[in-house]
Amino acid sequence: LSLQGLWWFHDVCWNIISHCVLFVCFQIGLDFTPWCAPSHQDREDQMSVFIKQLSVAKELQLPVNVHSRSAAKVTIETMREQGISRALLHNFAGKPSVALEGVKAGFFFSFPPAVCRNHQRDKLIKQIPLEHICLETDSPALGLDKLERNEPCNIALCCRHIADVKGLSTQTVQIVTAQNALRLFPKVQTHMQHISL
Ligand SMILES: [Zn+2]
């Protein structure tokens, strides 16, 4: 979203909210990988947009679903500075020490089936308390096999991987992560009466 488009975005948000139910403001965030933000100015522009998007989420009283790549620390610091209390950092791949700063701020972290491909994120998964973890697919990308379309049913794969890494049963991970998701997105529960945990 460009800086010029922000006020348009703001107006559209208010129009949408008056007509339907929003559960979350997504997917916003910072991507500082060199091909995405080659210059200092690019990173500054992303930061200005991100701060404005966070303020829209606060105004709408919605949790945020946040993408961060090569920008884990600055993403979490910015959200804390902006007073964000309800956030999901999806497909998080930052350092465990940075993730724990997010845990202290009450943020949640979700992991897609791609984490089963290798053990790169096991340390991170081990250190984040289960009470701060959610499951995601991020389909159609980030599946077990890069060449195959990732499907929502593959959520069971990340559940099993997190259970294995943490030495817990899959049922425990399933129940706690579902409870976490409902804590983070409480409006979902009010619109899905049949969910009982
Ligand atoms: Zn993303």
TrEMBL record:
Binding residues for a divalent metal cation 2: H67, H90
Q: Which residues bind a divalent metal cation 1?
A: D138
Its job: Exhibits 3'-exonuclease activities and apurinic/apyrimidinic (AP) endonuclease (in vitro). Show preferential AP endonuclease activity on double-stranded DNA substrates and 3'- exonuclease activity on single-stranded DNA.
Instruction: For this UniProt record, give its keywords in alphabetical order, as a comma-separated list.
Output: Hydrolase, Metal-binding
What's the source species for this entry? Answer: Notothenia coriiceps
The record's similarity note reads: Belongs to the metallo-dependent hydrolases superfamily. TatD-type hydrolase family.
Q: Name one GO molecular function term.
A: metal ion binding
Q: Mind telling me what this protein is named?
A: Deoxyribonuclease tatdn3
User: InterPro entries, from UniProt?
Assistant: Metal_Hydrolase, TatD-like
Tell me what gene encodes this. LOC104961540
Superkingdom to which the source organism belongs: Eukaryota
